[in-house]
Amino acid sequence: MAKGLIRIVLDILKPHEPIIPSFAKYLSELNGVDGVNITLMEIDKETENIKVTMQGNDLDFDEITKAIEEYGGSIHSVDEVVAGKQLIEEVTTPQD
After folding, report:
1. Would you say the pTM of this structure is higher than 0.90?
2. DSSP sequence for 57-93
């Protein structure tokens, strides 16, 4: 049974190193993380802008933030957060 955050989507700026597969594996080993999905959004000479989706049972935002900073990354924005016992997917409404 979920106790807190079960999904978080982050916009992160990181250096080219560590490479994305290593970064995903590192994040997936954090407490409470069941899976990590990383999408490369933009790349320039020195950095990569990535979208990181993490899912699990009782994700620890402070631990995630610390881990990202230890690897040289910085969170630009928190784009989605899901908390509770189950995932609630967004639905399209007529106003959309």
Report:
1. no
2. EEE-HHHHHHHHHHTT-EEEEEEEEEESSS-------
